[in-house]
Amino acid sequence: MSTFDGAILDFKRLETLASGDTTLHRLDPRAKVIVTALFIMAVVSHDRYAITRLFPFFIFPAALIAAGNLPLAYIIRKVLLLCPFAIVVGIFNPLIDRTIVLQLGDIGISGGWLSFASIIVRSTLTVGTAFVLLALTGFPAICRALEQLGIPKLFAAQLLFLYRYIFVLTEEAGRASRARELRSCGKKGQGMTSFATMVGHLLLRTWQRAERIHVAMLSRGFDGSFRTSRKSSLGSNECIFIALWGLFLVTARILDLPKLIGTFITGGF
Amino acid sequence: MHMADALLSPAVGTAMWGAAAGTIAWCSAKVKQELDDRKIPLMGVLGAFLFAAQMINFTIPATGSSGHLGGGLLLTILLGPHAAFLTIASVLVIQALFFADGGLLALGCNIFNLGIFPAFVAYPLIYRPLCGQDPSTGRRTTATVAAAIVGLQLGSFSVVLETVLSGISALPFTAFVSLMQPIHLGIGLVEGVVTAIIVGFVHKARPDIFIDNATVRHGFMKSIVPAFLALALVTGGFISWFASEKPDGLEWSLKKVTGREELDGANNGLHGRLATLQGRLSFLPGYNFKKTEGAKPEAGGKNEGGSRVGTSMAGIVGALLTLGLAVLVGVVLRKRQQLAATRPHSHEHAHPHRHEHEHLHSHGHTSHSHGHSHEHTHPHPHVHDHSQPHQADPNPQHTHEARVDVHCHGHDDSEHGSHEHHHDEHS
Questions:
Q1: ipTM passes above 0.90
Q2: Structural domains for chain B
Q3: Measured between beta carbons, which residues in chain A are less than 8 angstroms from residue B105?
């Protein structure tokens, strides 16, 4: 059951990365969440044929990966498993949009290939940056930042609860699934009925677990609200972080930096 | 059928985020109003259940392929629409962050497509009327299958609309729809059958679970229709407002891609424009890089061919340099980071080895102290934040404890999980 083990390993790996100790890790999570949101908006707001214009945006994840001391190979491997849906839909672009819009030497490049390449670059940037945010911050801290930024308390609590029990239930489901797989030898016994019964059992156990948790919470004085000790503040570091990256993102969005640099270099020869 | 960032325009993405966020706020308020404490842990744990159940595959009869549960409808039947919607949304948040299913901007779309349709359309408008009060097994199955199919059809249709409105993919509406809807008819059927079996199973074992949900207020329908109308108006208005600006953006983009300063000729839609461009470009003799070298010195001149080649050359050089710059920034910052790490002052940073060690140690400790009690739960899980203690307290030991705390909970409980599991399997 590689998916279960893989999922759990992923969670643990990202959690370990988030416990790093660099200036970036220590930043208030809100600053990182805000800049990441800006980044994604800046990237996706480009038109469908933009490719080189997106290149300056690689500076942001590259800088964070380096300064945050994150394992580059791991992030790249994660990003390489690009969202399959984007690829599947994007691959139709070259088939449909065949108009030649760019001529490189003797090779004509159709609009479809350009927009497909653009989809891949976008995907890499947005997915990669989301991972970097997670690896630098950690899920609980992101939830807290979101709560401070205004998402309902109940939903923040839900996210934390879910995250807390994902490890438990994924391991449990993984064991049940492995047992079924081993007993069904070939294909027989892997059908919908055995699946539904197994998941039904899992569901009943989950329900009972929830009831025990509730009793445990009540006995520890739960009164319907969650309390957290908040000590975070948006200090000067956070302001500088937001201001500098904000400036960079806005500049890269408005100006065609690669073209400017290129013109400067080729004109300067 | 997760939507992806790469296929989304910001207008569609933000509109969907708005819709999803509004619904989350509304549902949170509703669930809070219900004042049912039990729902809070139930939602959390069922979310984790959904996440895990989605990873179990089963073979689909007669096709040889395998599928997995979506689970939106299942949760709605068990929890009621509001709590189920929050639970589905939270699972999607985790999937977007940890597994890059879609992306962060597409999260709004995904919550909308996979959450709102089963919880607020398929359940109240299909499942409940078909099911009625105290349904027979056959009736419940029919209602479940119908609701699952409707929910998935609407969801996949919504994916198509979002993709086409965004205009990043070149797939035309009709082709995409005729691709997506039949596939999701099959998926919906399988989902419905599996959900019906699970619901039937749970109903036999724990009929008490369903009692709460039978008392869904009849005023519910009245409140949902205006809410939906408002949502549709806001979403539609927002998208069309942006969509009207689209041609400008596209025109601008074509200029950038082709390196042309001006676009003239027929401005009749995209195809006319592309055709014009193609015509203009093909008039030029096939210019290549050899020629570019020659043309470079006079790039500033008025020579039409030369300046165009110059700009496209500049574009490529610039792009390569920018990528190089990104690498350079990374390398320099990493070097600085490594230098800082080797300084004797900051030894506290994460050593996987040592971490493991403490982890195991504290694991033993906690499970011992809790003995055979059922669950270990905090009223406020994860109050410790990894990044936090650093600012307040430079003492490395402190931060380690906080981290280990988070980890050892997970282990403590999984240990319990395994005991339970063995027990259940043997019985």
A1: no
A2: 5-244 (1.10.1760.20), 249-317 (no CATH), 352-426 (no CATH)
A3: 40-41, 44, 126
